[in-house]
Amino acid sequence: MLKQQLAQKQQLKLLPQQLMLVKLLEATTVELDERVIQELESNPALEESAGEESNNDADSQDEFGSDQDSGDADLGDYRNEDDIPDYKLIANNRSKDEKKEDIPFSADLTFHEFLQEQVGLRNLTEYERTLVEYIIGNIDNDGYLRRSTDDMSNDLLFQLGQDVGEKELTEAIACVQEFDPPGVCARSLQECLLLQLCREESASKICNVTKVVIERYFEEFARKNYSKIMSELGIGDDVMKQVVHEVLRLNPKPGNAWSTLLEKNKEVVIPDFVVENDNGTLVVTLNDRNHHSLRVNPDYQQMQQQFISEKTSNKNIKEAAHYVKQQIESAEIFIETLNRRNVTLLTTMRAIIELQQPFFLDGNEALLRPMILKDVAEITGYDLSTISRVSNSKYVQTEFGTFPLKYFFSQLVQTESGEEFSVHEVKNVLQNIIGNEDKQHPYSDEKLAELLTKEGFDIARRTVAKYRDQLGLPTAQLRKQL
């Protein structure tokens, strides 16, 4: 049985303008550039109002008609056409001073192409060549073969229908291991180092001792348990130091010679804010790339006024009037939202500077005070989610370097005595203690906790270990040096 009934309910729903603001707040400077260009291309009623406008007056008059020839644009020019003219859809996003340069094309070989070239230098059968090329395809960018022969054998069986035994795959791996760079196609760091040592032209005593150390005492060497190695091999400190030097000379990642090609593709960090110290007064500005001078196209505004003044029942004209109105409203909303984004960013950054002023004046990390999103939200009056979006992917340029906004946020650490301090301050002192320790007898985490307590930071050993890991510092055993 069907039954109709009325019901009231509350539902939170974001307006399109609010959704747009959220997306723009999260956008980085580069992403904002792309979004503005996209909006300019999709909305003919939106245009840039840069300084080039005055310089292009003559061109604009030639394109749209000068005052002497036809006066203002006549609505009748558009009534006989179904679509907006092509020239109205073109957005010139280039500055008049911008150089048009072709992007250089890099013809350098990739790491795998370099290995592939060496296959042709080997006297291989067609079957062997297939296996060698398959092995090369499984080598990662570091130069390692991290797949087992069983996995590769199963792949070849199910994908290519070839039943390849472990012996054949091992022979193909051995063939690739003879390629350049030395150490390529190793299945572990130990094998990588041994492959490079075996390619050494000079069979010196140190080279032979190093091979023995890596082959028989690799775990002890990795843990820097040098005393056990010296005792069992009967060698002294001088020989052990030469062995360490020999190993450090080797390349643990044979494929990293091609890393420079990958570095070119990495995104360059562009700061969203610039903070300057003007005789003790901190001045924050947005990056110039955040300032997009946009406006509603005057021709579209004029068209809208003509549509309003000339009431008509013509269906085509009504549709054209509706289209123009939509585009103008969309342009106005985008401009307003963009301005709101910039105001929100500046307000948030000023609050961060207010809370972390000593750091921005001095640049000393120890001066960073504990700060969370709530602290900034209370000053700005914005919601926590807004502060989070602003600080999530933004960077600020200072005279001491460029920092992510996340860098200035840290939790409050409180000792048993009730004293409060910043995590940054603890890490700074911890790094100094480790930096000044005796490398032959480095401090354990327990000893570091004792030394921090003497400095006034009463924290547990496990907390010390966590901060040490976050600083990228290894354990005492791995920091040990001869």
CATH class of the domain at 412-479: Mainly Alpha
Q: List how many beta strands DSSP finds.
A: 8
CATH topology grouping of the domain at 412-479 = Arc Repressor Mutant, subunit A
Q: How many DSSP H or I helices?
A: 24
The CATH homology group name of the domain at 412-479? Homeodomain-like
Residues in β-strands, percent: 5-15%
The average pLDDT is 78
Most strands sheet: 4 strands, mixed
Helix content: 40-55%
Outline, from the CA principal axes? extended
Side-by-side strand order of the widest sheet: 3-2-5-6
Structural class: alpha+beta
- Rg to the nearest angstrom? 34 Å
Distance N to C terminus: 88 Å
CATH architecture of the domain at 412-479: Orthogonal Bundle
Instruction: Please mark out the parts with pLDDT under 50 across 5 or more consecutive residues, or reply none.
Output: 52-107, 260-265
Structure description:
With 482 residues, the chain is α+β, with helices and mostly antiparallel strands. Among the domains are: 186-250, no CATH class; 412-479, Arc Repressor Mutant, subunit A (Orthogonal Bundle). The chain contains 24 helices and eight strands. The protein has helices spanning 16-26, 29-42, 52-55, 57-64, 76-79, 111-119, 126-137, 149-159, 166-176, 189-198, 205-216, 218-222, 226-233, 237-249, 259-263, 298-309, 315-355, 357-362, 373-380, 384-392, 423-435, 445-454, 461-470, 476-479, and strands at residues 46-48, 273-278, 281-286, 294-296, 395-398, 401-404, 412-414, 420-422. Strands 3-2-5-6 form a four-stranded mixed sheet. Strand 5 and strand 6 (401-404) form a beta hairpin. The longest helix has 41 residues, at 315-355. The radius of gyration is 34 Å and the shape is extended. Residues 52-107 and 260-265 have low confidence and may be disordered.
